[in-house]
Write a structure and sequence with these properties.
Length: 537
C-alpha cells in the first residue's frame, strides 16, 4: 500500500500544522522578538510541508505558513488604519506563499520522476535543493516589484542582520543570502524525508544535515567585504519625538518646532564642549509642508545652519504645479537651500500605495470610501538623483538618500552606490506605527543595507528607533524610541562597490533562472509520468 511517507511527502494532517508552525517561527525570528536562529527551523518546517506534496495540500500549507507569518508580522498596519489595509496586504503576501508552495511541490515531485535523477539520489537532492532555493528567491523578487511597486518585506535575509552570517550579504546581496539559507535547509529536508531514506543505507539521510552545518559554520568565518574609505565625517541626527502620525493631535508647525528645539539643544551642548559637526540630518517630514516656499521657517533653519557651521538635510513635502506632491529631502545652508537647487533635492523613489498615493482610486473608493478619502495627497514617484552633494569642510560629500521605505528596495541601494554615495541618510517617520514592531523591522533592514553597500547608514526617525550604523552593521550611536534627542558620531566616507553591489543583481537573476529551470524540469517529469500512466491504463 502506497502512503504519503513512501512517496517522499508528509500526510496533509502533518504538513499543514507544520507549515503553520514554521510561519509562526519565522515571525519570531524577526524583530521585535529577534530570535534569529529560528529562521532555520522555520524554513525547514515550511519546506518539509511542501516537499513533493500534492497540489491541494501544498497550497493549503502555503496558506497556513503565509497566514501564520504575515498576519502577525505586519499587524502594525492596524494601529491607525484599522484591519482593512492589514488584511488586504496580508492577503496579497499570503497569496505569494500559496503560489510558492504549489511551485515547490510541482518542482520537487516532477524532478523526482525523471529517470536520470531516480538513479542518482545525490544529484536528485542537489537538483531539488537548488530549485527550491531558486523558487524562494523568485517569490521574494516578484513580491518586491508587483503589484503596485511591490513590498520587499519579510525576506529570509532580513532575519540575519545581527547574526554571525550577516557579513555574507556584502558578498552575495539580499537574494543571495536568502538563497544560502534556503538551499541548506532544502538539502536537509530532501535528505531526511525523500531521497536517502529510500536507499539501502538510511544513515545517509544524516549526511546533508552534517554538510549544512559545516557550510553554515564556515560561512560565519567570512568577513565583511571592506571598501576604501577616506576622511571621517562628523554627523548629527535629530529625533524630535514629534506627534507626526496621521491622526495625531497637533498644530501646524509643531513637528518643525520640535526639531528646531532639539537642534538648538544639541548646539548648546556642542558649544559647551567646544565641539562641532559637519552635517545635521532631520528625519522625513520634519520640515512639514513646503519648506522651500516658507521664508520664515527657511530663515530659522538657515540660522541654525549658520550657528552650527554645517548644512542641514531636512525632509519636507513639496507641491508640484500640476497638483501632485513629492515626499522630499532638501539641503539647507546659512543662506537657504543649497545651490544649485536642482541637485540639493531628492524626491522619494518608492511612494507607498494606499498611503502616499491611491492607485485605482475610483475602484477602491467604491469599496471603502472612508479609508480612500484619508489619502488626500497624490505623491508621485521621484525622478531626481538618489544622491545629494552636501557642502562640508571636505568639500561636497555625496550623501545617498532613502526616505522611509526606500531603504527596503534593492534598486535604491544599487542606484545610490552607482551614483557615488559615500554614506547613506535614511530619513523616516514611523509615528503612524506607534510602539509596534515596524520601526525595529525597518531598522533591521537598514542595518543589513549598511553591510551590503559597505556604507555607514544614518537611520533617523521622527520618533525612533534611530541609529547611526557602521559599514559592518554595528551601532555607532542610538536614540531610544519616543524620546527627544540627538546622536553625534564620526562615520567613514566610503567609495567603491562591494561584491554584493557589483554582482548581486546577477546572483539574484541566476537563482531565479535556476528556480525557473527546476519548474520546467518538474513539469517535464510530471507530464511524462501522466502520459505513461495513461498508456498503462
Amino acid at each position: 500500500m502506497r502512503t504519503a511517507f513512501s512517496e517522499g511527502r508528509l500526510p496533509w494532517w502533518i504538513a499543514v500544522p507544520l507549515a503553520a508552525l514554521g510561519g509562526w517561527c519565522f515571525d519570531l525570528a524577526n524583530p521585535d522578538t529577534s530570535v534569529w536562529p529560528l529562521v532555520f527551523p522555520s524554513v525547514l518546517l515550511i519546506l518539509a510541508a511542501w516537499w513533493q506534496q500534492r497540489p491541494g495540500v501544498a497550497m493549503l500549507a502555503g496558506l497556513a505558513a503565509g497566514s501564520a507569518f504575515w498576519l502577525p508580522h505586519i499587524s502594525w498596519l492596524t494601529l491607525y488604519l484599522g484591519p482593512i489595509p492589514w488584511l488586504a496586504l496580508s492577503t496579497v503576501m499570503v497569496a505569494w506563499f500559496v503560489l510558492q508552495g504549489l511551485c515547490t511541490a510541482w518542482a520537487t515531485r516532477g524532478i523526482r520522476t525523471l529517470p536520470w535523477f531516480r538513479r542518482r539520489p545525490t544529484w536528485l537532492l542537489v537538483a531539488q535543493a537548488l530549485t527550491v532555493a531558486g523558487v524562494w528567491v523568485l517569490r521574494e523578487g516578484v513580491q518586491g516589484v508587483w503589484p503596485y511597486g511591490g513590498f520587499p518585506w519579510g525576506r529570509v535575509a532580513h532575519v540575519l542582520a545581527e547574526s554571525p552570517l550577516s557579513a555574507l550579504v556584502s558578498w552575495v546581496g539580499f537574494a543571495g543570502l536568502s538563497a544560502v539559507i534556503v538551499v541548506v535547509c532544502a538539502a536537509v529536508v530532501g535528505g531526511s524525508i525523500s531521497v536517502f531514506p529510500c536507499t539501502s543505507s538510511a544513515w545517509r539521510a544524516f549526511i546533508p544535515a552534517g554538510v549544512a552545518v559545516a557550510i553554515l559554520a564556515a560561512a560565519t568565518l567570512i568577513p565583511v567585504a571592506s571598501l576604501p574609505n577616506h576622511e571621517s565625517l562628523r554627523v548629527a541626527a535629530i529625533q524630535g519625538n514629534s506627534k507626526s502620525g496621521i491622526f495625531d493631535d497637533r498644530e501646524n508647525g509643531d513637528v518643525f518646532a520640535d526639531h528646531v528645539r532639539a537642534t538648538e539643544e544639541l548646539l548648546d551642548a556642542l558649544e559647551v564642549d567646544n565641539e562641532h559637526v559637519d552635517v545635521i540630518v532631520w528625519p522625513e517630514n520634519a520640515g512639514e509642508f513646503a519648506l522651500t516656499d516658507n521664508p520664515l521657517r527657511g530663515r530659522e533653519v538657515a540660522l541654525l545652519s549658520k550657528r552650527a557651521d554645517a548644512q542641514i538635510v531636512i525632509g519636507t513635502v513639496l507641491a508640484d504645479p500640476d497638483g501632485s506632491y513629492t515626499n522630499s529631502s532638501v539641503v539647507w545652508g546659512p543662506t537657504g537651500q543649497q545651490q544649485p537647487k536642482e541637485t540639493s533635492r531628492y524626491d522619494k523613489r518608492f511612494p507607498v500605495p494606499f498611503a502616499e498615493y491611491m492607485p485605482n482610486r475610483d475602484f477602491f473608493h467604491a469599496l471603502v470610501p472612508d479609508l480612500v478619502d484619508l489619502v488626500q495627497l497624490e505623491y508621485r514617484t521621484g525622478t531626481t538623483p538618489t544622491v545629494m552633494p552636501v557642502d562640508t569642510q571636505f568639500g561636497d560629500v555625496l550623501a545617498g538618500i532613502a526616505i522611509c521605505f526606500d531603504i527596503i528596495f534593492d534598486e535604491q541601494a544599487e542606484n545610490m552606490v552607482q551614483e557615488g554615495a559615500e554614506l547613506i541618510l535614511a530619513q523616516s517617520n514611523n509615528a503612524d506605527f506607534g510602539r509596534t514592531d515596524e520601526n525595529v523591522q525597518q531598522l533591521q533592514i537598514a542595518r543589513l543595507r549598511a553591510i551590503e553597500t559597505g556604507r555607514a547608514v544614518v537611520n533617523i526617525s521622527t520618533v525612533g528607533t534611530s541609529a547611526i550604523i557602521a559599514p559592518d552593521g554595528h551601532d555607532i550611536a542610538t536614540i531610544p524610541a519616543f524620546i527627544e534627542g540627538a546622536v553625534v558620531a564620526d562615520v567613514p566616507l566610503v567609495s567603491g562597490s562591494t561584491p554584493a553591489l557589483r554582482y548581486g543583481a546577477t546572483i539574484s537573476l541566476v537563482w531565479m533562472l535556476i528556480g525557473g529551470a527546476g519548474l520546467l524540469a518538474g513539469g517535464v517529469g510530471l507530464f511524462r509520468l501522466r502520459r505513461s500512466t495513461t498508456r498503462a491504463q
